[in-house]
């Protein structure tokens, strides 16, 4: 690909962004700090109403924060008009011009920037080839599938040569197989054009597929930011663990590097107690890490009776009633425990983590079905 197709790199920083709307009981965003390195990819992940799309609108200049700054490569863009920010945004609906063919849709931002029509069309064809849509250039948007429309929308965004690309739930309306194709395409594009990417999603699997790091927003605040694997296995709070689908919580307390509960004293890995030096704490172990063993297996850390088996395709989610409450294990194909079977559970030491106990007023643990 020629250098002309590549966008300028951009280091994006959000500093103390706050946004409240009239009549709201609490700010939609409340002091958001976030760093997106040049050519990096960060996913904003959170439930509906957590402030994800508001953040993207503030970055794009489609809304103005009540406080805080949007900084790109050291330049404060907070009061800069959207068209002068060198950013491109891809929405859930592609918003292609129905009266233009695909090539002229992609050429449009180039012509607006002053490029002659012939050169704009030539560049548009290059970007369409880049996203695997070169054969569509003569077609009209109404004849395209959803996946094809989003490929064209990506090509049009890249044609604007943005420093930062913003994606707002861009693939959420697509079928799962097409969504997976778009994730692969986005990864390929990042390797080719080295664009800086900030995307909004409510799907943790999508975040894991396309982002270097994930920023979890809960109730307008940044709850945690880091690699998705770290967020799953080393969540900062109960709220982060629950949002990311964690099912196992054992109440107890920390004492001399171990968690003490109805399960007994379980050793913790180095660094696990950094957020909880002593006192009340909740032990977390991802259900994917828990193993079922025979009742007399000496490696078992807990014991109980199977009270539920939920199919997860080739795998099975098993609930076991223990002295400390229900624990869950996600089993690989081939393991088929029976209801009411007595089993042992292995909670691998390196997968154990503790967080502070929930403060008064914290919502009760959601039903398992809501988090799997």
* Number of separate structural domains: 2
User: SSE string, helix = H, strand = E?
Assistant: EEEHEEEHHHEHEHEEHHEEEEEEEEEE
Q: Unreliable stretches, pLDDT < 50, 5 or more residues? A: 360-366
Kindly provide the name of the CATH class of the largest domain. Answer: Alpha Beta
What is the CATH superfamily classification of the largest domain?
P-loop containing nucleotide triphosphate hydrolases
Task: Give structural attributes.
372 residues, alpha+beta, Rossmann fold, OB fold (Dihydrolipoamide Acetyltransferase, E2P), 2 domains, six-stranded mixed beta sheet, five-stranded antiparallel beta sheet, 8 helices, 23% helix
Describe the structure.
It is a single chain. With 372 residues, the chain is an alpha+beta fold. It folds into two domains: 226 residues, Rossmann fold (3-Layer(aba) Sandwich); 114 residues, Beta Barrel (OB fold (Dihydrolipoamide Acetyltransferase, E2P)). The chain is 23% helix and 31% strand. The radius of gyration is 24 Å and the shape is elongated.
């Amino acid at each position: 690909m020629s250098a002309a197709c590549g966008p300028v790199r951009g280091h994006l920083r959000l500093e103390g962004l706050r946004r409240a709307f009239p009549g709201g009981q609490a700010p939609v965003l409340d002091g958001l700090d976030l760093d997106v390195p040049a050519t990096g990819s960060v996913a904003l992940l959170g439930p509906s109403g957590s402030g994800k799309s508001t953040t993207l609108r503030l970055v794009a200049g489609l809304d103005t924060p009540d406080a805080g700054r949007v900084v790109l490569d050291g330049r404060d863009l907070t009061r800069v008009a959207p068209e002068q920010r060198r950013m491109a945004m891809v929405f859930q609906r592609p918003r292609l011009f129905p009266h233009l063919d695909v090539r002229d849709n992609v050429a449009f931002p180039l012509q607006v920037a002053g490029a002659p029509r012939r050169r704009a069309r030539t560049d548009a064809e290059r970007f369409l080839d880049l996203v695997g849509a070169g054969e569509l250039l003569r077609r009209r948007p109404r004849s395209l599938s959803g996946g094809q429309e989003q490929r064209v929308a990506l090509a049009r965004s890249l044609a604007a040569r943005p420093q930062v690309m913003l994606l707002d739930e861009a693939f959420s309306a697509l079928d799962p197989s097409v969504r997976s194709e778009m994730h692969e395409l986005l990864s390929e594009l990042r390797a080719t054009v080295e664009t800086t990417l900030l995307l909004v999603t409510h799907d943790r699997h999508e975040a894991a597929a396309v982002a270097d790091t994930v920023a979890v927003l809960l109730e307008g605040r940044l709850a945690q930011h880091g690699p998705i694997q770290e967020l799953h296995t080393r969540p900062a709070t109960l709220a982060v663990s629950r949002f990311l689908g964690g099912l196992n919580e054992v109440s107890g307390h920390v004492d001399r590097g171990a968690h003490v509960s109805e399960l007994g004293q379980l050793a913790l890995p180095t660094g696990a107690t950094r957020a909880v030096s002593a006192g009340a704490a909740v032990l977390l172990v991802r259900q994917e890490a828990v193993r079922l063993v025979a009742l007399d297996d000496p490696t078992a850390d807990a014991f109980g009776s199977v009270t539920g088996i939920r199919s997860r395709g080739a795998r099975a989610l098993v609930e076991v009633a223990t002295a400390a409450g229900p624990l869950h294990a996600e089993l690989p194909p081939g393991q088929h425990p029976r209801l009411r079977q007595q089993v042992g559970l292995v909670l691998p030491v390196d997968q154990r983590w503790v967080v502070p106990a929930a403060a008064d007023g914290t919502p009760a643990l959601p039903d398992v079905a809501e988090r799997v």
